[in-house]
From TrEMBL:
Residues 4-239 form the ABC transporter domain. This is Phosphonate-transporting ATPase. Pfam families: ABC_tran. GO terms for molecular function: ABC-type amino acid transporter activity; ATP binding; ATP hydrolysis activity. It comes from the Bacteria. Gene3D superfamilies: P-loop containing nucleotide triphosphate hydrolases. CDD domains: ABC_HisP_GlnQ. InterPro entries: AAA+_ATPase (IPR003593), ABC_ATPase_HisP-typ (IPR030679), ABC_transporter-like_ATP-bd (IPR003439), ABC_transporter-like_CS (IPR017871), MetN_ABC_transporter-like (IPR050086), P-loop_NTPase (IPR027417). Belongs to the ABC transporter superfamily. Keywords: ATP-binding, Nucleotide-binding, Transport. SMART domains: AAA (SM00382).
């Protein structure tokens, strides 16, 4: 069953054609990595999936909801589709534990005892048990991003979106965040769509690699095919050879 399906989707920012003729289907449980040069439309693509960006035409079905329909309640979609941003977006005036407990309390009306138990289990999962009562400013960037992942997981989403989750981190912090993401991909049946420049992660974890350039999907292959250097599109081949060369 498809968790996300784009059908001839177009997206504009004024006169700028940001997404062109997007056709993409992501099945439940798949891990799909979206790669490509800067400005290729990757982040715009992922932000349309939970309604942070609207589309101008075409059809976008997410977890059975049509995002092109004005009748669709975006809050219902966001209950099941979590998002991890580049810059964490934690509440600065709340502890890490409180950050994780907040959305399930307000949106899901989860019992407080159960909510705290789940939050503590997630803190353990992302290696932050000792940081529960600290505030975001007291944590490193990598720790904040792991807390943001735990916060998204607390809603028990069916699909989790990652928008370049390591690009704002110092190099020595990236590995811990990627390891948490690998654990999620390996240990759950959650759908994951990841915009990233981390090719090692894509090679190891992704079922599929989607390559974008100039607002278009130019390649959609299994990770095995893509990383064996067999993309069919010349732009994708050049991109891959440049990565390998560096």
């Amino acid at each position: 069953m498809a968790m996300v399906e784009f059908k001839d989707v177009q997206k504009y920012f004024g006169d700028f054609h940001a997404l062109k003729d997007i056709n993409l289907k992501v099945d439940s449980g798949e891990t799909v990595v979206v790669i490509g040069p800067s400005g290729s439309g990757k982040s715009t693509l992922i932000r349309t999936i939970n309604g942070l960006e609207s589309i101008q035409s075409g059809q976008l079905i997410v977890n059975g909801y049509d995002l092109a329909s004005k009748k669709t309640n975006l809050n219902l979609i966001r209950k099941d589709v979590g998002m991890v941003f580049q810059h964490f977006n934690l509440y600065a005036n709340k502890t890490i534990l409180e950050n994780i407990m907040l959305a399930p309390r307000i949106v899901l009306h989860r019992d407080e005892k159960e909510n705290k138990q789940i939050a503590n289990e997630l803190l353990e999962k992302v290696g932050l048990t000792s940081q529960a009562n600290k505030f975001p400013a007291q944590l490193s960037g990598g720790q904040q991003q792991r807390a943001a992942i735990a916060r998204s997981l607390a809603m028990k989403p069916k699909c989790l979106l990652f928008d370049e989750p390591t690009s704002a981190l110092d190099p020595e912090m990236i590995g811990d965040v990627l390891n948490v993401m690998k654990d999620i991909a390996r240990d759950s049946d959650m759908t994951m769509i990841v915009v990233t420049h981390e090719m090692g992660f894509a090679r190891e974890v992704a079922n599929r690699v989607v390559f974008m350039a100039d607002g278009q999907i130019l390649e959609d292959d299994s990770s095995d095919v893509f990383f064996k250097g067999e993309p069919k599109n010349e732009r994708a081949k050049r991109f891959l050879s440049n990565i390998i060369a560096h």
